[in-house]
Amino acid sequence: MPCSPKKGPGGIDCEAGGISAGLSEKTLRLLLEAMEITADGIGIFDPDDRLIFSNSANAALFGLTPQQAQGKTFEELVRHCYREHVGINIETDDIEQWLAMAHQKRRRHRYRSFQTDMLDGRWVQLTEQLTEGGEMFTFFTDITEQKRIERKLERLTAKLSTQANTDDLTGINNRRNFLRLAQQEVSRCRRAGRDCALLVIDVDFFKLVNDEYGHQVGDCVLCNITAALSKELREYDVLGRLGGEEFAALIPENGTVQALEVAERLRKAVVSIDHGEVCDGLRPTISVGLAVSEGAGIALDWLISRADQALYRAKNAGRNCCVLWSDAGN
Q1: Residue 208 shares a structural domain with residue 141
Q2: Residues 73 and 211 in one domain
Q3: Do residue 62 and residue 125 come from a single domain?
Q4: What is the pLDDT of residues 26-66, one digit of tens each?
Q5: pLDDT tens, residue by residue, 223-259
Q6: What angle do CA 75, 81, 83 make, to 5 degrees?
Q7: 31 in a structural domain
Q8: Which of 71, 73, 153, 259 is most buried, by the most CB atoms less than 10 A from its CB?
Q9: What is the spatial distance between Cα 76 and Cα 173, in angstroms, rounded to a whole number?
Q10: Helix (H, G, I), strand (E, B) or coil at 149
């Protein structure tokens, strides 16, 4: 790259006593050429935040050539990007507010490094380094591939997390995740002195569905029942499949009366499901066992055990009903 004895690319002073002190003219030219051909951005701002040197990659950060960018202030460069919709992705409807926030961070520390995205889809890692004299050296590296890999790993992690916490068939919490979330809600209600109800739900005579219609139809029935249960519960209630045809629902901040109302609503919702032609008119029902903490210091294991006992009574009572556990009745 041509470089006069006095001025190099971007206007850098190449005279002896400047940055070329101790360097041969050939070495200086090679150094300037390297800065120009690198894919990394290199820029220098003076103490007034005016760009006094920029290689091509750095100027492209603002949608300009080095000749166009040189001499412009940081604010002028940003306004150009915003006005022409080029370079850095400036997501704002108020450029004045954006610039005010940028100035609050810019030149506040000797060293700063951050990531930003470009309108062309690239991501870059930007680094700012202040000198004792107030000049600022800026560098950026393209990290688009790194971001692509990070996002791929994030999607994979989210997928694995979902698989680890979700029942494959019904899409609700599996047993492990239900117990984890239910424990959190029980602890929260206990700290707040609030009631908490646990419902254990079993599909009546489900083995007959599998035996008569096959497991594929049985799976369809379970999914339909799950959808009906989910529709009747609040967003912050915790629903899970414990295994097979058994489900559980943790209903925080509900006492005995409300819990019985919820259980009965769930029972009626399942009875009213239209399973279509897959079951040829079959209407599976559920039995529900309930236990309520009533604000006491009761553990999740206690609720599960008592709700299971109540479920056993519901089945003995003929199924398709809801039974509440109580000291007197169990």
Answers
A1: no
A2: no
A3: yes
A4: 888 888 888 888 999 999 999 999 999 999 999 999 999 99
A5: 999 999 999 999 999 999 999 999 999 999 988 999 9
A6: 95
A7: no
A8: 259
A9: 53
A10: helix
Reading the block at residue 251, the tokens are 């209903």
Catalytic residue among 245, 253, 261, 294: 245
Assigned token pair, 96: 């004045």
Q: How high is the mean pLDDT of the chain? A: 89
In this structure, are residues 240 and 232 in contact, taking their beta carbons and an 8 Å threshold?
A: no
CB 45 within 8 A of CB 52: yes
C-alpha closest to that of 44 among 62, 23, 28, 59: 59
Inform me whether the pLDDT recorded for 328 exceeds 50: no
Do the beta carbons of residue 266 and residue 200 sit within 8 Å? no
Please give the tally of structural domains in the chain. Answer: 2
Contacts 24+ apart (CB under 8 A), 101-109: 102/78, 106/49, 106/74, 107/49, 107/136
Region 259-283: mean pLDDT is: 86
Q: What is the DSSP string of 278-328?
A: GGTT----EEEEEEE-TTS---HHHHHHHHHHHHHHHHHTTSSSEEE--TT
What whole-number distance in Å separates Cα of residue 200 and Cα of residue 207? 18
> Taken in order 180, 181, 185, 186, is the CA torsion positive or negative?
negative
**The dihedral formed by the CA atoms of 172, 175, 177 and 179, expressed in degrees to the nearest 10:** 120
The pTM of the full predicted model, rounded to 2 decimals, is 0.61
Residue 184, domain extent: 167-324
Catalytic, 33? Answer no
Query: Where residue 297 sits, what CATH number does that domain have?
Result: 3.30.70.270
Answer yes or no: is 105 within a domain: yes
